[in-house]
Amino acid sequence: METPAKKRVTLYDKTFEVMILYEELDRHIQKVAERINRDYADCDTPPIMLGVLNGSFMFMADLLKKLDFGCEVQFIKMSSYDGASSTGKVCELIGLNGSIKGRHVVVVEDIVDTGGSIEHMMKLLAAEGVASAAVATMFFKPDSYSRDYEIKYPVMNIGNEFIVGYGLDYDQLGRNLKDIYVIVDE
Ligand code: IMP
Ligand code: MG
Predict the structure, then answer these.
(1) Cβ of 11 less than 6 Å from ligand 1
(2) Which is the closest atom of ligand 1 to the Cα of 141?
(3) pLDDT tens digit string along 42-55?
(4) Domain span at residue 37?
(5) Which positions ≥6 away from 134 have C-beta within 8 Å?
(6) Of 27, 28, 93, 162, which sees the most CB atoms within 10 A?
């Protein structure tokens, strides 16, 4: 018997087919939320849930609804530009709402791939003098990851395939899709 065709979307020149339904994403988020609830239940100061824009907005919204401790919510962007000096690329955080010195921070990411972005982020947070920084990411590509920072709260591990939806984009399209879609080789 033929299996029914999977739902497809076209974004610019690429075709994607559905890979993970929202209900499954949500079940996995629940498990990670329970771990975060246990780990941050007795903090001396309210932790800061720090979403990295743009991709983390959907994951952040669903995760926050499952957290049961008092926390602050902030969103940041990492901007990188070529520095004038010979040191090359310079990164900075934009959007921080005051000092985060001495605070416990959970960085909320859409996806960690090679780990380059999260490494920059963790260095910048250390420079801000945070008390602790942990990473919660909706998707993690362990086969591609090549850095030393611990990814403490990966919600779902995937292979090296390119995915869109649930905040993730292909050339800024696809972020609004509720389910996760994977690129189709044609
Ligand atoms: P990094 O390699 O861990 O630094 O990831 C860099 C960025 O690549 C992520 O923040 C995403 O914006 C993007 N990225 C990596 N894999 C995917 C994917 O499968 N779909 C959409 N964006 C991705
Ligand atoms: Mg990102």
Answers:
(1) no
(2) 16
(3) 999 999 999 999 99
(4) 8-79+92-183
(5) 39, 105, 106, 107, 150, 152, 153
(6) 93
